[in-house]
Fold this protein.
Amino acid sequence: MMNEMTLTGWRRENNRVGVRNHVLILPLDDLSNAACEAVANNIKGTMAIPHAYGRLQFGEDLEVHFRTLIGTGSNPNVAAVIVIGIEPSWTGRVVDGIRKTGKPVEGFWIEQHGDINTIASASRKAKEFVQWASELKREPVPVSDLWISTKCGESDTTTGLASCPAVGNMYDKLIPQGIYGVFGETSEITGGEHLARKRAISPEIEEKWYKMWKAYQEDVIEAHKTDDLSDSQPTKGNILGGLTTIEEKA
């Protein structure tokens, strides 16, 4: 039996493990970006993550937005969260979602308070959170408690020679240790889907994965006549880096 690997990390209230200890200043929408950045500028040790979303969204699109914000604040690399929005209803929804993890979170809204008062109040609470987070101690944790996600990093001709094999080797070593691995950008599997299928742990997982892949191909690529993925995959930056097809990128 393989000896269990360990590292030091922060054990969160919901038993997840983080390897960072951020105090996050999270805007609900793009109108709240300036206030969040002002708080982050005021209080050393905080991090604002401005974005362009939240307004004029509805239905499933809006639900994805809420899930994304709640998921970001719930990330175990985050110790505590300040949420700033325009009005209390949506702000409260994100705060309540993050609070389910047990971590400290506080919401502020600009309506009826104004930017200056909101920034001042949020800054005071952020200062408290930073002080609290700075006193948290790392502890030995098993590698199996980690969730590791990977993201494309501007592929060029060296990607298949160095970075992708290195990341793949990392997963080959850590997945048997019990980690939870995630990757994004489904389109970038194009041309390598048969290789991914072979790595499935069981026929059931293989079938489930392939159905997902096939649905993407049929519902997105073929249905919208974008089989060549022009101006999307490979990107202009990929092409400048020496790649010519999505198969090379995969």
Observations:
- The radius of gyration is 21 Å.
- The beta strands are 6-11, 17-18, 22-27, 46-48, 78-85, 105-109, 139-142, 147-150, 180-183.
- Residues 191 and 247 are 5 Å apart (CA to CA).
